[in-house]
């Protein structure tokens, strides 16, 4: 996620360099011609020949959602077919709305029933959240072996609070909920993620990609923009329409329902972008779509093909920044650099997943670094920000304040990657990062994976180790 205020605060030191004469690219080119470089080593990792396919045994999730006429209540059923890669006797779901300062915003997610042939019982766990609890645990009547599937269905009710810009909320003419359904908290190869919620406003969830279908029933006058490739809505019936989407590789789902004026366009690479703006918005939908397509082009040039077939961008009424979801972005405030940051998250978080609690830099430092494709950063500015105290690679419970978290994970983390690229040589670094992206597509990556991808670029590893993004244990060999 990001917030305009936060980005401007960082921008003063890292991102926005008004009056900067030479671009980062120019600066680097000049330095490279002055300092002889080792020829770029060809990537040694055979995994990067092509992008990895998602796990064929990944969860299959069906969400059937209904926005009530009050525009403040969502009732739903979530069906999950889950096939663990390690034995387990339970399913753990993260109830994100209960951890997002619900007392202030009025957000609340309640599980009304848990059903399934193997279900023996269920209950909440606290995990530092308010309301009924931060986790919902479904106990199975026996152990599920690795590779053995079970099917569970949860009925739930989500109350949309009214507050500032949050993951779920409602305002005049628009309701939205992202991470609004119980989120299957499985980390393949590791197990259930029971990480506590924290006060710092950042994500703390870990979730695998799932083959996901979504159906949303909403009052007929409203338009739905959500995660996944959307079909045309159903014909109105009893004053409502049903909107459906399919996303075969969604870690999570975002839905926005409102009086959107929309504009769709398909980019050169075939990605279909649909944006929506509310009456009186600062920007027209057509313009917002053009910005989004430009951001995709800029990022594809650096990181390779866009991960999804579609991208939706609903622009909400509030100011506040943006929050990334698989193939959908909740944007609050028409800010192009924030938009670019959130589009970059489609690679770093959406496709290359991470534990957002344990390794938040794997998505936030990379998305901040990605802003440099449009907003170049000088080596001097990067070096100054790199002097920020503390480890880039800290977990979410290691930060006392939001400002400290943003300065270190976004600012220092982004600066470390800019500096690592300069130290290793842009061409070799970009090739290695593409290799990292493709080799770790649709998984939950770790700092080890970054270190492995950069194994032939010791200068880059030195920078990232010095910044506390990687530690000695992560280094190859
Ligand atoms: Zn972000």
Task: List the main descriptive attributes of the protein structure presented here.
single chain; Neutral Protease, domain 2; 7-stranded mixed sheet; 5-stranded mixed sheet; 22 strands; 26% helix; binds zinc ion
Tally the helices: what do you get?
A: 11
Specify Rg, calculated over alpha carbons: 22 Å
Within the CATH hierarchy, at the fold level, what is the topology of the domain at 4-39 and 352-474?
A: Neutral Protease, domain 2
Unreliable runs: 4-46
Description of the structure:
This protein has 477 residues and is α+β, with helices and mostly antiparallel strands. It has a domain at 4-39 and 352-474: Neutral Protease, domain 2 (Orthogonal Bundle), CATH 1.10.390. Helices cover 26% and strands 29% of the residues. It is built from 11 helices and 22 strands. It has helices spanning 4-15, 24-34, 102-105, 285-303, 336-344, 361-370, 379-386, 402-424, 426-439, 447-453, 458-466, and strands at residues 60-67, 73-82, 88-94, 108-115, 119-125, 135-144, 150-159, 168-171, 174-178, 183-184, 186-187, 191-192, 210-219, 223-226, 229-230, 240-250, 254-258, 261-266, 272-277, 310-316, 321-325, 328-332. The strands form 5 sheets. Strands 4-7-2-1-13-16-15 form a 7-stranded mixed beta sheet, with no helix packed on it. It has a 5-stranded mixed beta sheet with strand order 18-19-20-22-21, with helices on one face. A hairpin with a 5-residue loop joins strand 18 (261-266) and strand 19 (272-277). The longest helix is centred in the last third of the chain and has 23 residues, at 402-424. Residues 4-46 have low confidence and may be disordered. Bound molecules: zinc ion. Zinc ion binds at residues 1-2, 341, 345, 364, 367.
